[in-house]
Amino acid sequence: MTESTPKTFATVSQNAEGSTATFKSATATSANLPAAVLLAAGEGSRLGGMPKSLLTLNGQSLLARQVSALRLAGIHQIVVVTGYFHSLIETELKRLHVDIVRNPQPEAGQQSSVRLGLSKLRAPFDFTFITLADQPLLDSADFVTLTTAFTQRQPSTEIRYPFVKGQRGNPVAISKDVVSLLLAADEGVTCRGFIQEHPELVDPYPTENEHFIVDIDTVDDLTAFKARTGLELKRPA
After folding, report:
1. Tens digits of residue pLDDT in 126-157
2. Paired sense of beta strands 99-102 and 162-164, if any
3. Is 106:41 a contact under the CB 8 Å cutoff?
């Protein structure tokens, strides 16, 4: 979408509420009730065209591992966004008892899935994780750590993500106020774009935990993962 002027935080607020709004920042003293949007809509083109979320580790799909990790961390409102391979992925999700939303146009890219997932959050929450289904090392302790990190972020900030050895990791945590603004703004405002345009709202969380930067995109990544961990990720049957 072509825009005549770049969106600023003020213009996003204006779009959301009809007039320039004062952003009411949550602080570390606010309640701690996380939700999660789990992205599993990708085509897996660099892996030969396959659902990465259905790769298995020790007999369990990455998708099931993520859902289990989230629940063990106390996160029970989980929205999974499907798209490509939706039939296979939704079959796997039936037994996991999560909310499912299907992106009818997954070719529009990951940010369209992010927006769709955020729009389906219903229960009360104070912030939400946007997390990827192809991060094989994430566990419940990682989500607990990031939950604590979000509640301890700098005052006036609304977004936190792990920052590992100079590299931005996932998942990303965003406040419910940012979610509201994103959904009220026009579709040209993406979550990624919002974060880039508003560094004043971001408090990166420095950590040495490489769980946050290991994901699977290519065949080489599968090989590197096995060499690094001694564990083998197997393709779905």
Report:
1. 999 999 999 999 999 999 999 999 999 999 99
2. unpaired
3. yes
**Contacts of 145 by beta carbon, 8 Å cutoff, 6+ apart:** 207, 209
pTM of the model: 0.86
Q: Which domains does the chain have, with CATH numbers?
A: 32-234 (3.90.550.10)
How is the beta sheet containing 99-102 ordered, strand by strand?
99-102, 78-82, 34-40, 127-132, 172-175, 159-160
User: Residue written as tokens 């566990």?
Assistant: 139
Alpha carbons 235 and 182: distance in angstroms, whole number? 36
User: Could you give the CA distance from residue 181 to residue 189 in angstroms, rounded to a whole number?
Assistant: 10
Alpha-carbon span 125 to 31, nearest angstrom: 9
CA-to-CA distance for 217 and 135, rounded, in angstroms?
A: 10
Cross-sheet strand order for the sheet of 233-234: 60-61, 56-57, 233-234
**CA–CA separation, 49 and 69 (whole Å):** 26
Separation CA 90–CA 98 (nearest Å): 10
The torsion region of residue 101 among left (phi > 0), alpha (psi -120 to 50) and beta comes to: beta
- Max Cα–Cα distance, the chain, nearest Å: 56
Pairing of strands 99-102, 78-82: parallel
What angle (nearest 5°) sits at the alpha carbon of residue 85, between those of residues 52 and 121?
Answer: 85
For tokens 């419910």, name the residue: 176
Whether the CB-CB separation of 163 and 169 falls below 8 Å is answered with yes
Spatial CB neighbours of 153, under 8 Å, sequence gap ≥ 6: 28, 160, 203, 205
Query: What are 180-194's pLDDT values in tens digits?
Result: 999 999 988 999 999
